[in-house]
Amino acid sequence: MEFSTKAEKLQLEQVQAALFIYRESEQPENETAQLIAASLEDGQNFAETKILIGGRLQPVAVCRLKNTERETLNRAAAEAAKWAKNQSEAAVDLSAFNADEAAAVAEAFAAAFGNAAYCFERYKKDRKPAKLTQAAFFSSHAAEVAAALSVAEAQVFGQSLCRDLGNAAPNECTPAFLAQTAKAEAEKLGAGVKILDKDYIQKNMGSFWSVAKGSVQEPYLIELSYFGAADKNEAPVVLVGKGITFDTGGISLKPGLNMDEMKFDMCGAATVIGTFCAAVKLKLPLNLIAVVATCENMPSGSASKPGDVVTSMKGLTIEVLNTDAEGRLILCDALTYAEQFKPQAVIDVATLTGACIVALGHDVSGVMGNNQELINRLLAASKTVDDKAWQLPLFDTYKEQLKSNFADLPNIGTPGAGTITAGVFLSHFTEDYPWAHLDIAGTAWKSGGEKGATGRPVPLLLNYLRNL
């Protein structure tokens, strides 16, 4: 989808469909928009109609904003996007706003339009491509709006890549497919790529290998690199993603109901790849590394068994009490791998625990870590773009739940605080750098009639990187 900005005044007869956005305390300048706005009742913020112009019926809509806070903008933009996606082109009037406000409104509405236009019909015989292909934003503050649209375009690009990977069928989106796609997308943007295969993983990453060895699909460790800082030796930010392309639970087999959704267990990896590519697309002035551990978790004669003891890349031994707690087993080795980059910060992203859904539901990602400044930056970024996250504690007392009679660590704790004990497990492998963990089990995809990957938390992470 293409976004553009125009410095002139919006003329209804020159556009296909028009949307006028204005503050609740004011009225739109356009007379037609004023008439539509007058029809809004209390509690209503959006109205649409069609008017006859030049012998054709032209869609015109208004959107009334209480304020320009991002949560308000996102909610209003989502409603407007339902209308916009049914238009081939949309013209958006921002004449009611100053430069900063116009940029904020443009970014939120462009992102909403782009995400609303997204469709995944790769496997359908009769495909219906998105109708909305262009959106033009009219404002006298063209430079500020154009900059905001670049951000929105990059975010939509990253989210769409994330969603494409998440929505792909697991017989297509194998670890090899994930590695090949990451390589292709990164190289298109001029970023560096390094792919490590089964031989490296088996030799060096015993915890990762313990999960991967049950599948006929070979595992991969994906490393993407971008050096956009003025000082190419500046400590990078490292994003680490969990890429279980299908999770049966292994020998600790999951129930069959809704197991098809376990193709989404690689959405942490998809988020990291999407965020990395969006950041490179924006040419952000920082050094950035993405590390993705990807494999399947399958039951077989070669799969790990409950009670197995494996040795991690860090040298800590792990008693595998439940093979369905596999995400932390691949992440711990990926987090150890990240040490070599001497990072300024490491953020891992994973659909790690169903307990996070119990704690926070489907609208909020869990965040925890060993560095409060890093966590605060992530929470601020989440609030700025309304990609919600909430901090959970990592008190030392939770470490009491992770004790094994036979190894340095078990891979699960005692019942209760499942999301936190998963984070505590990972904390043993992140002691040498600032680290934060995002559990996106509740936010990475939707079930039911809207089943599909959401592309979250790409907005949160991209905003964090933009503000470093």
TrEMBL record:
Its cofactor is Mn(2+). GO terms for molecular function: aminopeptidase activity. Mn(2+) 1 binds at D247, D324, E326. Binds 2 manganese ions per subunit. Keywords: Aminopeptidase, Cytoplasm, Hydrolase, Manganese, Metal-binding, Protease. Gene3D superfamilies: Leucine Aminopeptidase, subunit E, domain 1, Zn peptidases. It is an enzyme of class 3 (hydrolase). This is Probable cytosol aminopeptidase. It comes from Neisseria lisongii.
